[in-house]
Design brief:
The protein is elongated, with a radius of gyration of 22 Å. Helix content is 12%, strand content 61%. It has an eight-stranded antiparallel β-barrel. It has 201 residues and is mainly beta. It has two helices and nine strands.
Length: 201
């Protein structure tokens, strides 16, 4: 009984210490997203929004471990012909709604201000939509069943740079390099440049 009590006390102390060191925050910003699809696919980047929460744990004076859970509105646009004689073109916008979980190691080369960050990111596709500019609202068009055509899980590598100030405000710029094929039968990979601003409590 005594040994169990000692172990319980040690575990409670360790959990309390870890909890006291964990920092929490929120962030929001924008993503300049696109998809890499090969040489013959003329996809253009599309702006979207990101917003979510952050948890950080200091490993030592130079390194922090950071986990996040955030929503990302991603996608791309493509110019298509909307007339049979190919004289009129419109933008076809694809929008993807992801929940992303990056696990990053942050390196502070000098003090606790400027940092470099890198690590893996896991994404889950919640929804997808597409819209053709100037398409008549009452005119039907064939669409892909995204739940069958798209992969739900996305894996990517993330790297970036940021700065956190004494008042808790931080800015972060990172690049997301997707490794997973977005389509089940296709060559598309997610790409994105993210800019966010946030606050650590």
């Amino acid at each position: 009984m005594g040994k169990k009590f000692v172990v319980l006390v040690i575990c409670m102390f360790f959990c309390a210490t870890v909890s006291a060191q964990i920092g929490f925050g929120v962030k929001s910003g924008a993503v300049f997203a696109n998809q890499k699809m090969g040489k013959h696919w003329d996809a253009k980047s599309k702006w979207g929004m990101i917003t979510g929460v952050i948890a950080t744990y200091p490993l030592n004076e130079k390194l922090d471990l950071q986990g996040e859970l955030y929503y990302a509105n991603r996608g791309f646009t493509q110019s298509i012909y909307t007339s049979f004689d190919q004289t009129k073109s419109s933008n076809w916008a694809f929008t993807y709604h992801y929940m992303n979980i990056p696990l990053l190691v942050k390196f502070f080369p000098m003090g606790k201000c400027i940092y470099l960050a890198a690590g893996p990111q896991f994404g889950y596709l919640m929804d997808h939509s597409n819209d053709i500019e100037d398409w008549p609202k009452d005119e039907p068009r064939e669409e892909l069943d995204w739940k069958d055509e798209y992969r739900r899980l996305d894996f990517s590598l993330v790297g970036g740079i940021g700065a956190i100030f004494n008042n808790g405000i931080f800015v972060d710029v990172r690049y997301d390099y997707g490794l997973t094929k977005v389509l089940k039968n296709g060559e598309a990979n997610n790409r994105g440049l993210e800019l966010s601003i946030g606050y650590m409590f």
